[in-house]
Amino acid sequence: MLDEAESLRVALERSSRQPGGVLRLSLPPIGGVLMAELAAFRQRYPEVALELDYSERNVDIIEEGFDAAIRVGAGDDGKLRSLALPGFRRLIVAAPDYLVRHGQPRSAAQLAEHQLIHYRSPNSGKLEAWPLVNAELPRALVCNSVHARLDFALQGQGIACLPDISIRRELEDGSLRPLLGSENGEKVALRLLWPSSRGLSARMEVFLDFMHGQVSGGCG
Question: Within a 10 A sphere around the Cβ of 30, how many other Cβ atoms?
């Protein structure tokens, strides 16, 4: 009887730790960030629902009830634990049609002679800096959307600076071309952050195990 009671207790304890429920993640508004990894996680753990909140705002993970956040940059927060993720590059790109009409810049300085599509941060109000460029650049279009900048670039409206993870298909099919060797530039850091001060749910435990496996396996 005691053995049966112990077996029942262990079974109940295991079942109570089965992953399930909703995993709330905050992500930067960059198309392509962890899409393949999140899809693979859902395939492995279909009982865990994902709620993804895309925002440039640095949410308060604990106060706002998030399980974790993906953030750009290598900053540190003592209240949070972190896992370094494969980063991305910001590429300077243009459509072939634009390059036929306006020519291809051969140096960063020549960007000043072109129609440029910029991103303005809704948080800071500042224009995003471009790789390889230290001087102020002209502005043909300014917006706060990756998708809008991509659409304008594809329509030949100018040269844009876009995350490589957001334009993989366009780079592969040649509808956008990288310029000035920006595809060989330094990567922008990405981090997975989660609270260090509270116990982990079963869904968060399996998510962290999964992401550790993806990173060690060389995802991205």
Answer: 19
Token code pair at residue 185: 């530039």
CA nearest to 63, candidates 204, 205, 202, 198: 198
Chain centroid to CA 52: 12
pLDDT for 18 = 77
Is pTM, for the whole model, over 0.70?
yes
| Domains, the chain | 1-87+188-218 (3.40.190.10), 90-185 (3.40.190.10)
Instruction: Give the DSSP letter string of 77-124.
Output: -TTEEEEEEEEE-EEEEE-HHHHHHH---SSGGGGGGS-EEEEB-TTT
pLDDT digits (tens, 9 = 90+) for 78-95: 678 999 998 999 999 999
Averaged pLDDT of the chain: 88
* DSSP designation for 127: B
CA-to-CA distance for 157 and 151, rounded, in angstroms? 9
Do you know the residue count of the chain?
A: 220
Dihedrals phi, psi of 75, to nearest 5 degrees: -65, 170
